[in-house]
Design a protein that fits this description.
Two copies of one chain form a homodimer. With 135 residues, chain A is mostly helical. Chain A contains six helices and two strands. The longest helix of chain A has 17 residues. At the A-B interface, helix 1 and helix 6 of A face helix 1 and helix 6 of B. The complex binds iron/sulfur cluster (2 copies). The first copy, chain A, binds a DNA duplex (30 and 30 nucleotides) through helix 3.
DNA sequence: TAAAATACGACCATATAAGTCCTAATTTTA
DNA sequence: TAAAATTAGGACTTATATGGTCGTATTTTA
């Protein structure tokens, strides 16, 4: 528990790689998968999601690939995480990640508040960390 | 991902509950399970682990139960987490949680360092948070 | 038209998490 | 001494999440 998923790590690795190239440079999923020994299919999916969310721009066809659409300094890790995982994923307690009613002890739970406070700080950290800090 | 497990939440709830009683007061697993609508068997296991690690003291037999062995202010959340989960669990990247060789891209990975730095801060937060802050 | 790329859904295998069940062992008390 | 209430702990089951794979379109260029 408490780990970033492989998908997120792959996304970060890919984005960092792209951030090191020159502006507008096209990268293919295959090229990145090979370089970092990442399973191609999985990376492809991850990049498709990043494209769908607008963080990278995709070009189909021969000589296609992806370019960064934004400046790396605008690529917050928090945003990338949320782009790839569906539910609010940086939520150390479950009632913050999904609907509170899912936890049967929600009404009697007494540990929520201190943990939520802690989470706020963590959120801020992921918010302030951008791809720029990774190159 | 990135959530505390139910076991840990149950441990925190139980310890907080115990911290609210008077020093040396005995609590049973059943009593706490009932009060917070936690599955008894699961909570029992959790408390057994806490007892084994010395955070609470167990008394068997009729009118048995558990008492807090330490002052709540000495009960770090980080320690409780590690008591219950086996491997280094507050490790946002996998190579920090287990042996780095398990990650086939470890040698080529380029995102480790910034994340490790972030993790250091998170560790500190869990280290500074004690049960006292929860009562 | 062939090649190389993205797009995307379906699927599978494995691991983890969560919960349950069963049977001791211990202690107290009626 | 027997029954009751408790901890102790292993085995098991189920549910869910993760990581990965496969198959097939679609798009674009040479
Ligand atoms: S209500 Fe309490 S136990 Fe339930 S998910 Fe939230 S923090 Fe965890
Ligand atoms: S080496 Fe990189 S990809 Fe592998 S676990 Fe560590 S951070 Fe994640």
């Amino acid at each position: 528990m408490f780990q970033l998923s492989k998908k997120i790590e792959y996304a970060l690795i890919a984005l960092r790689h792209m951030a090191m190239g020159h502006a507008g440079q096209i990268f293919t999923a295959k090229e990145i998968a090979d370089k970092y020994h990442i399973p191609y299919d999985l990376l492809a999916k991850v990049m498709q999601k990043l494209a769908k969310k607008g963080y990278i721009t995709s070009y189909q066809g021969l000589h296609g690939g992806y370019t960064l659409t934004r400046n790396p300094s605008e690529l917050k890790v928090s945003a990338i995480i949320n782009a790839i995982e569906e539910k609010q994923t940086v939520a150390i307690i479950q009632c913050e990640a999904e609907s509170p009613e899912n936890c049967i002890i929600h009404s009697t739970c007494t540990i929520k508040n201190p943990l939520v406070r802690l989470q706020t700080t963590i959120n801020k950290m992921f918010d302030e960390l951008t791809i720029t800090e990774m190159v």
